[in-house]
Design brief:
Low-confidence stretches: none
Largest sheet: 9 strands, parallel
CATH superfamily of the largest domain: Metal-dependent hydrolases
CATH class of the largest domain: Alpha Beta
Radius of gyration: 20 Å
């Protein structure tokens, strides 16, 4: 190790999806993890600056794949707010996220692509938007949830020609039973876009066809889809039964009952479960009225709803999602962290860069208290959030 440019986070418990190390050090150089090990394996050079993290936990940076907005800004209504949101999102340990554009006119998606392609403004310091999650407009009107029915439409190959990771589209949610959906699923999957099933009335057989065409993700399982029936397992049954599919889930205790989360944990704990927030513009704000796309949403202390009581996103933060999973399932910290680090990174094709603490990985890190409160957040080796007193 070269002493020049090294920075060390020292004496912490290091928890990754692979290994837990007590009293370890993480060395950072040029935005990457340089080395990880115990004091014996990786002693701190006298000349190297370090942060003493005794009594704290170092984890990989959190990744949120479904995020509609926060701090009063809705990303569908104002896609340009992604940089303002990202700068503040680090308080929750989120180092990477997919700004989510819900059902809207297609020019809104193109605008969001353009903003992402232009890159961050000069001097930006915050969470990294890894591309977009386009949730809609190819959804089933019968399961529209909080999506505007005026903008729902049938899938079209011509409309997704420019949808690729290189053009800013990482994940697309659609209903696989819609006419034309299988062709769109196949075309997007071939370009490396993760295709997800959601807001759907698909039967078991229709979902199986969608999986064969390329579906590899479930958008907020159980929500906005037919309920599971013992003779008609439908979308939920097909997604849970296929180990190729990663399961997205909102663990706020409202979207899915904690008992049900505990029931499906044994089926999904081995790298298949991905916690998301589905957070909307009221995250980090006081109760009141806020936007989700074209809808006005009433937000109380713990939930966001339309006038008719339909849940409209959440006010859940990703660090709270982590704490909830630990509480609801009794899983280990390493298992819980996997759901918001290595699992989402692997799903969207970034498993060699993000989601782990290992040499060569981006130095996206979160410093946590023993009860998993965020104390500090690092993006590319730079401290972008520090709780008072740390």
């Amino acid at each position: 190790m070269s002493i020049n440019s090294l920075f060390c986070i020292a004496n912490a418990t290091i928890i990754t999806p692979v290994v837990t190390l007590n009293q370890g050090n993480v060395f950072i150089a040029d935005g990457l993890v340089e080395a990880v090990g115990s004091n014996d394996q990786c002693p701190i050079p006298d000349e190297a600056p370090f942060l003493d993290a005794t009594g704290m936990i170092i984890a990989p940076g959190f990744i949120d794949l479904q995020f509609n907005g926060a701090f009063g800004h809705d990303l569908t209504y104002d896609p340009a707010a992604l940089w303002q949101i990202g700068a503040a999102l680090t308080r929750y340990g989120v180092t990477s996220f997919l700004p989510t554009i819900i059902t809207a006119p297609l020019p809104t998606v193109r605008l969001a692509q353009q903003i992402w392609l232009e890159g961050s403004p000069e001097g930006y310091s915050g969470s990294t938007p890894l591309g977009l999650h386009v949730e809609g407009p190819y959804l089933n009107p019968e399961k529209k949830g909080a999506h505007d029915p005026a903008h729902l439409r049938l899938p079209s190959l011509n409309e997704v020609i420019s949808w690729s990771p290189e053009m800013g589209i990482r994940l697309v949610t659609l209903a696989p039973e819609l006419p034309g959906a299988l062709d769109v699923i196949s075309a997007l999957a071939q370009k490396g876009v993760v295709v997800s099933a959601g807001h759907s009335m698909a039967t078991y057989d229709e979902t199986r066809l969608g999986i064969m065409a390329g579906i590899r993700y479930a958008t907020h399982l159980f929500n906005a889809m037919m309920t599971l029936h013992h003779r008609q397992p439908g979308l939920i049954g097909a997604l849970l039964a296929d180990e190729r599919v990663t399961i997205g889930l909102i663990p706020d205790g409202l979207h899915v009952h904690p008992a049900l989360m505990k029931m499906i944990w044994p089926m999904t704990h081995d790298g298949r479960l991905n916690l998301v927030t589905d957070a909307m513009s009221a995250l980090g704000m006081s109760p009141g009225n806020y936007k989700l796309g074209s809808h006005e949403v009433l937000v109380s202390d713990d939930r966001a709803t339309l006038d008719n009581g339909t849940l409209a996103g959440s006010v859940l933060s990703l660090d709270q999602a982590l704490r909830n999973l630990l509480k609801y399932t009794g899983c280990s910290p390493a298992e819980a962290l996997r759901t918001i680090t290595s699992t989402p990174a692997s799903l969207i094709g970034l498993s060699g860069r993000k989601g782990q603490i290992a040499p060569g990985y981006d130095a996206d890190l979160v410093l946590l208290s023993p009860d998993f409160q965020v104390m500090a957040t690092f993006v590319g080796g730079q401290m972008v959030y520090r709780r008072a007193g740390v």
